[in-house]
Amino acid sequence: MNHFAKIAAQLRSHDLDGVLLTNEANRFYASGFHSAGTDGMALVTPEKFYYFTDSRYTEAARRHIQGADIREVGAGRGYSALLQEAVQRHHIRRLGFEDAYMTVREHGFYARALPCELVPAADLLAELRAVKDPEELEILISAQRIAEKALADILNEIRPGVTEKEIAARLQYLMLHYGAEDKSFDPIVVSGPNGSLPHGVPSEKVIQAGEFVTMDFGCVYRGYCSDMTRTVAVGSVTDEMRRVYDTVLAAQLAGIAAAKAGATGRAVDGAARDVIEQAGYGPYFGHSFGHGVGVEIHEGPNATPSNDKPLPAGAVVIATGGVSYPLTGSTGDGYALAVALGHTILPPRGSLVPLVAEGDALHHCVGTYAKDHANGKTAIFFIRRAKAPRKSFYTLELNEGKLVVRQNRGRRNCARTKEVEEEDG
Predict the structure, then answer these.
(1) Which is it for the CA torsion 174, 179, 185, 186, positive or negative?
(2) What is the pLDDT along the chain (425 residues), one digit of tens a residue?
């Protein structure tokens, strides 16, 4: 899979004769081939696509990159020489460059070396990467499923006496075990008083009964990232802990319900933020509701108070509503709560489809096993069908350990129920 042609199709509308890609993530997006750091360069023109690299990657690039001319640097012919030849060959006058990534020194070098004008073009790539095609969506779903498998296993290992570092290490191992290429970021595992650190570093702290444990983790699969956060209770929860948890979950559902193609990032964030503020926890929701994810763990579009642009159909956004709220236990220790539902897709026609199969029912981890919310039945989220012949939606529920799908149609709310196996998502 590569996106050379997709990029080339946008050159004329941006008044460009070509675009130069030096950033690692953009090179991968264009070519479908990964080379580390600065060890590669892609050039996209309307007529032809190029990928320049050195002898360490040439053979692999020729095996993996389709539809591009692979050129090798070396023997006195560096990147600038190969690039200059291509610019002259295609009569490029306006060459786009990644102004969000290229350094001042690099820009000065290419400005002197190339017989053309360098034009800022980072937005071109950002706009394209914000809208995922079907193959990208399938890869993102697979990445998310790997993380969910790791979560299902780790819930059986969270118990008093285990350290945050041990849980973090196991999450990384389990994701690799289930097929991940790498972690998408260093996993966060915080418990008890450390829970007030949304981006806390796993420590040697021993997990205690009656604490929340928050895990923020993800993996890379075929070059694309997953990202999810879960909070579980060890043994039991207080009324206040449950109240904060339920508030965050309600905020997430409100944000997800507001997320559709055409809605602004500010509106989606505001829908979740209103729930938290009305519950009295507004000062403790310090971050935004969500961010895009794809080749990079943080990319556009964003569901933030500052984003007044409409979310495009086909975007993938993380729903990360959370509250870092200090609670006081019997020992005077501080606690906190932060929860996330994971990815949501915004496909054509504004329909909302969740990538996450594993829901947000509050898990109580006791000993070496986990059980769901005490009432045994917790609504998770809704899936609106993009091509339904009439108004309908699905409700997913956990019922005595089984995932139940309810299809509801129209105002009569006539429901058809079926049980599905866990691996069916």
Answers:
(1) positive
(2) 899 999 999 999 999 999 999 999 999 999 999 987 778 999 999 999 999 999 999 999 999 999 999 999 987 889 999 999 999 999 999 999 999 999 999 999 999 999 999 999 999 999 999 999 999 999 999 999 999 999 999 999 999 999 999 999 999 999 999 999 999 999 999 998 887 777 789 999 999 998 889 899 999 999 999 998 888 889 888 888 888 888 888 888 888 888 888 999 999 999 999 999 999 988 888 888 889 999 999 999 999 999 999 998 889 998 877 777 665 543 334 444 444 434 344 444 444 555 555 555 565 554 322 223 222 222 222 222 233 333 333 344 444 444 444 444 443 333 333 333 333 33
Nearest to 335 by CA among 192, 189, 200: 192
Please give the single-letter amino acid code of residue 359: G
Cα–Cα distance between 370 and 231 in angstroms, integer? 13
In angstroms, the CA 181 to CA 174 distance is 12
Q: Which residue has the tokens 């020729």?
A: 62
**Residue count of the chain:** 425
291's tokens: 């961010």
Rounded to 10 degrees, the C-alpha dihedral 128/134/138/143 comes to: 10
The model's pTM is 0.81
DSSP 238: -
Name residues whose C-beta falls within 8 Å of residue 145's C-beta, 6 or more positions apart in sequence. Answer: 357, 425
Q: Which residues contact 89 (CB under 8 A, 6 or more apart)?
A: none
**Is the four-CA dihedral 183, 221, 302, 28 of positive or negative sign?**
positive
Name the token pair of 30: 């264009």
